[in-house]
Amino acid sequence: MMTTKDTFKSDSEKLPELRRTVLIEQIKWLIRMRWFAVAGIVVSGLVCTYIFPVLPEVNTIHRCALFLLLFNVAYLVISFRCESEPTAFDIVFALVQIEVDLVILTILIHFSGGVTNPFTFFYVFHIIIATIILPKKLSILVGITTISMFGIIAIGELNEWGFLRHYPIRLSPVNNLWKNPTYMFGMFVAFSSTVILTHYLTRTVVARMASKEIEASRNKDLLEAIITAMGEGLLFINNDGQVQYCSARYLLFGEFI
């Protein structure tokens, strides 16, 4: 016969698996988002090469897109393996993906204008994603990494350190950028993309939370219906000896038990 203590123990043992299932779903969502990122880099590179020729290092941009594509293929293969074979390194797998994405984003920004690149806003998305997927301490680590990488860019460009020197976009001097139509268009696209993607990520979080709440409510209703239909009375007592739940049938017949 299963006691109340055994029931609570059984539920607690299921929690890590439930959390792991959610994490695997989030990792797959991140991989899907990365396909769009690869396409965005390729399109941006082509636009900034043939329509607005402003990039000082076009080949590096294309290499970053290729590396991101290859990494994402590898992530996809590993995610299928993680789904079939549970592993304790699922969170590490998610952290590695975000950190690698940060490195590639930093390289992209550095070789396309550095601190003057209007798409430096995109660092924010990695913070949002890390906060969604990772535990608190690891998301803070991602934040520290983001600040450090941007700091390295800034210091390297300020001091002209070898390959860390500034790679200026081919526009007028910085103090007149606000008068340059191409730069202002780039700023508008970067700002608009930031707003749209931030809205999408936020709505994704809200939608998933609402879905989980609805699922939990349905499970609660189902459990209550099952308990109500039981022929026996049911009483749940926590480890402190306090009554957590008492069915109506127990109230009717409990005194005779």
What do these coordinates show?
The protein has a domain at 16-170. The chain is 72% helix and 3% strand. The chain has seven helices and two strands. A hairpin with a 5-residue loop joins β1 and β2. It is elongated.
Provide the descriptors you would attach to this structure in a database record.
two-stranded antiparallel sheet; mainly alpha; 7 helices; single chain; 257 residues; 72% helix
Question: What's the quick description here?
Answer:
The chain is mainly α. The chain has 7 helices and 2 strands. Helix 4 runs antiparallel to helix 5 (136-159).
Order of helices and strands: HHHHHHEEH
Q: How many individual helices?
A: 7
Mean pLDDT: 77
State Rg: 26 Å
**Biggest sheet, spatial arrangement of strands:** 1-2
Topology:
Layout: H1 4-51, H2 58-84, H3 90-110, H4 123-133, H5 136-159, H6 181-229, E1 235-237, E2 243-246, H7 248-253
Antiparallel strand pairs: 1-2
Helix pairs in contact: 1-2, 2-3, 3-4, 3-5, 4-5, 4-6
